[in-house]
Amino acid sequence: MAVSERNFYVSRLFSIAIFIIFVIDRSHSIRIPDRISETAWNQPDQQNLKTAVFALGSFWRSEAVFGCLPGVVRTTVGYAGGSKTNPEYRNLGDHAESIQVEYDPRLISYRDLLEVFWSSHDSRQVFGQGPDVGNQYRSIIFTNRTEESRLAAVSKEKQQNRSRRSIVTTQIQQLGMFYPAEAAHQKFELKRNVFLLQLIGNLPEEELERSSLATKLNGYVAELCPARIQNQIDAKINDIVKKGWPILREL
Ligand SMILES: *[C@@H]1O[C@H](CO)[C@@H](O)[C@H](O)[C@H]1NC(C)=O
Ligand SMILES: *[C@@H]1O[C@H](CO)[C@@H](O)[C@H](O)[C@H]1NC(C)=O
């Protein structure tokens, strides 16, 4: 590839990335170094964020389900619900594949998250979800003795009330340790899409894991965003690709 051609490609990618960051989250300031730093994104609401932890089958999918919801700032896949210390993917003992969701309660409520939890898996399946068979795929709502425990219990009862013909297997369980999973499992869907990874500036692993933008795009890649958001991101990307350099002119 000729240098000028490569420069064209690189600057075009950055212009697209900057534009996407701009459209996806207008409320945060943008810094444009040779690599896009995200520290500015996460600071404003940091203290007001809340955390929820769920298990609902494969954590690759769970992360994509929650990552795209408005108000969800960050997601981390990991292991919880068991007693084994330092679980690993191939040796997770009695833990369940879990998803930790950091969210801004002013934008999305715990109740909303519970609804997404119930509608995103089959809580009546025993010993797994679809092709994912095993104890590690069981359904759990983790709570920590707050109001959330009560909301979880009520939502489970409601779910059970919808039909008495089978049992809702979901456990409601006190959260002990949450062990973040290995890097390869974080933002798993996004990591399979080289184009989008480049689009956000090939962030190093630690930044990628904390990136709100990556969190959203991870859901987008899996096509698990709410339809409206899926279409919105789709349109933005298509538009950018079609138009070429919408931002670079302004830099
Ligand atoms: C635990 O409780 C605190 C205090 O209410 C809350 O902010 C936090 O999000 C809860 N975390 C989990 C994992 O439920
Ligand atoms: C579930 O059904 C029972 C029996 O009809 C009822 O008493 C209870 O209030 C229902 N619970 C919820 C959360 O809807």
TrEMBL record:
<protein>
    <recommendedName>
        <fullName>Peptide methionine sulfoxide reductase A5</fullName>
        <ecNumber>1.8.4.11</ecNumber>
    </recommendedName>
</protein>
<feature type="domain" description="Peptide methionine sulphoxide reductase MsrA">
    <location>
        <begin position="51"/>
        <end position="191"/>
    </location>
</feature>
<keyword id="KW-0560">Oxidoreductase</keyword>
<dbReference type="InterPro" id="IPR002569">
    <property type="entry name" value="Met_Sox_Rdtase_MsrA_dom"/>
</dbReference>
<comment type="function">
    <text>Catalyzes the reduction of methionine sulfoxide (MetSO) to methionine in proteins. Plays a protective role against oxidative stress by restoring activity to proteins that have been inactivated by methionine oxidation. MSRA family specifically reduces the MetSO S-enantiomer.</text>
</comment>
<dbReference type="GO" id="GO:0008113">
    <property type="term" value="F:peptide-methionine (S)-S-oxide reductase activity"/>
</dbReference>
<comment type="similarity">
    <text>Belongs to the MsrA Met sulfoxide reductase family.</text>
</comment>
<dbReference type="Pfam" id="PF01625">
    <property type="entry name" value="PMSR"/>
</dbReference>
<dbReference type="InterPro" id="IPR036509">
    <property type="entry name" value="Met_Sox_Rdtase_MsrA_sf"/>
</dbReference>
